[in-house]
Design a protein that fits this description.
There is one protein chain. It is globular and about 50 Å long. The chain contains three helices and 13 strands; from the N terminus they run E-E-E-H-E-E-E-H-E-E-E-E-H-E-E-E. It has 282 residues and is an alpha+beta fold.
Amino acid sequence: VKMCALGSGMRGRAWAAMAIVDRSLGAPAVVTLRRVASPPWTTGQLPLGGAPHHHLGANTPRSLPVISHAPAVRASSAPPPIDGAVTPPRARADANNKIGTPTTSSGSGSSGAVPCASASPSLITGMAHVVLVLDQWEASTAFYRSLLSFVGFVCVADTDRGHGSYDRTPFLYYIGGRTAVGFHRSEGENRGVAFDQSRAGMHHWCLRARNPEAVDAIEHHFHAHLSELGGKMIRPASESTFAPGYYSLLMEDLEGQRVEFNYVPGKGLLNMDTPEVSSANK
């Protein structure tokens, strides 16, 4: 496992990231935590089914936002400071006993296992982005363009259509709902290798819907458009006991990669006195 600091530019705005590179699976898997000092664009609430460029926020440029990849800063260069110096979480915890203080809960099902630890409040505000690798590029990107445009995401990079740029092409990238989804094409010896949910790596990914009606609308869009693009409905919109009030659907793209859309009211499991997934709510 390797951790490094990165710096780059996006439309002239500074950003910083920490990357954790896990090489235990052979090919590196990179997870980045990004904080933008001054967002290059602001998007408003995008209603389902609306054309994204009709519903951008008041601060959004007249043209659609474009992501442009810039070379990384040399390793010897420190990333630009953001909001001044940052005190490590552990130091903050020692100083005020508020942030970063581990709390443990053995749970009813534990028997000497490593206890769960949490920080209150959480140091993370959400998932910044997920990037998938597609083998059937043309067909699969048609599926995701339809899906992500429908839920109100804004395309900021589509190199096949001359929109945005990136150092590895082709590249497709959508932003919305305080997260982002990107796509690369498989290369070299990995071309033609089918996705396997049971293999080490990603099992499935999930986007949080605004309300149950949004989940229903996505299901309607699937049957009207995505099924004819090769999608497969695995579990129609329904309630389950993963968490209190959990309402979701699960679909597959034409390569077998699964994407879920769910709605959980309030804080979900965190509303419980002792948050825990058990046989009663699996």
